[in-house]
Amino acid sequence: MEVSDTGYGLTILIETQQVPHHDWMSYVCWYSLTKNLPDAKVVVTCARANNSFNLMRWTYSCRVPLLFHKNLPWLEQQSLVESRKKHNFYPNFLSIIPEMVCVRDFQEGEFKYNILQKNNYYKNLDSLFCDCRSENPTVFVTYDEGWGKFVTSSWIHKLSCPISVNVSYVQPNMTVNETKLGRIWDSASRTYQSVSRG
Predict the structure, then answer these.
(1) In sequence order, what are the beta bridge partners of 150?
(2) Could you tell me which residues are beta bridge partners of residue 12?
(3) Is residue 4 in some structural domain?
C-alpha cells in the first residue's frame, strides 16, 4: 500500500513514556497530525513506569489506541501494534516522539513520502523534521530548545501543564515553523483540559 500526501496508508506511532510532560506533548503531537496528516492512523505506545500518575486519559476521550509496554525498542513497538488486528492499522509505519509537531502535509513539506515503507524511524529520515527555530519547510518540527517565549526545559517532569488558553508564547520575529507550531499549540490548548479528564 502506498502512502498519500495526507497520510493515507501510514500508521504513525507516537512513542511515549509514563511521565507527566509526555501526556501534554503527545496530545499536541496527535492534534497536529489530525490537522496536517488527517488520513494517517495514529497509535500511542507508552512505556510503563513505577509511578501512580494517571496519564494519557486524553487518548480515551479522543479514541486514540493506547498500548502500554515495558520499554520495548521502536521496532518491537511496531510489532506490538501490528499484532492488534482489531484496529486495522496500515502496514507502513512511522515511529515518532511526542516532542514532534506536524506543521505541514508531506507534499507541502516537500518530503518524498513514497520512501515510507514498512518500518520507519524518525531519526533515519533527515528531511522529515527540523528544529522549529529553523526556516526549513519540513513536515515535522521539534521544540526541544523551546519556541517563541516557551522554554521546554522548565516544563519537564512537572505535574503542571503549559498548554493553557490564557498564556501566549508568541514573540516577534518567530520563524514560519514557530508560527505554525504556535497556531497548533493555541488550537490544541482549547480542548486539552477537557479531553485530558478522560
Answers:
(1) 147
(2) 42, 94
(3) no
DSSP state letter for 3: P
Q: What is the mean pLDDT of each run of 10 residues along the chain (198 residues)?
A: 91 92 95 97 88 81 91 80 80 93 94 84 90 96 93 86 82 94 93 82
44 near 66, Cβ under 8 Å? yes
Residue 90 lies inside a defined structural domain of this protein: yes
For residue 55, is it within any domain?
A: yes
> In total, how many domains does the chain have?
1
Domain range spanning residue 52?
10-193
The C-alpha atoms of residue 162 and residue 122 are separated, in whole angstroms, by 25
Beta bridge partners of 16: 46
Residue 32 in contact with residue 109, Cβ under 8 Å? no
The answer, as to whether pTM is greater than 0.90, is yes
